[in-house]
Design goal:
It contains 5 helices and no strands. It is mainly alpha-helical and about 120 residues long. The longest helix has 23 residues.
Length: about 120
């Protein structure tokens, strides 16, 4: 590997580790947030992949202030297309849309800098 590729790999690995650790750390909180937005659904009826994707997206939204909201939404919708059902992207987008409004109003999403607000 070239030095630039190695540096990018290390950066990606660090991000993935941070995302995983933070997702686990705030797991109960993210589950409660999700439950609050799926009024007509039981958690055990939602695909496990969808729950994990939502938890990771919430973590990225709240714990990574340098990542724009639109980037997070797009990445996790793409992830749902690859790892879940054909209808998951609509579900994920709907839940995230509702959560982003609430989390922004409550101050849990704090994005600063050009293009992040």
């Amino acid at each position: 590997m070239m030095q630039k590729e190695t540096a990018q790999y290390e950066e990606d690995k660090t991000f993935a580790r941070e995302l995983l650790c933070n997702t686990i750390k705030i797991k109960e909180h993210t589950l409660e947030l999700i439950k609050g937005k799926i009024i007509n659904w039981e958690m055990d009826r939602i695909a496990t992949a969808d729950v994990i994707i939502l938890q990771m997206a919430i973590t990225e939204l709240t714990e990574f202030p340098s990542i724009p909201i639109k980037v997070t939404i797009n990445e996790y919708i793409e992830m749902s297309k690859a790892f879940s059902s054909s209808k998951s992207k609509i579900f994920i987008n709907g839940v995230l849309d509702k959560l982003i409004t609430d989390l922004t109003e409550s101050g849990e999403i704090r994005k600063t800098g050009r293009g992040l607000m």
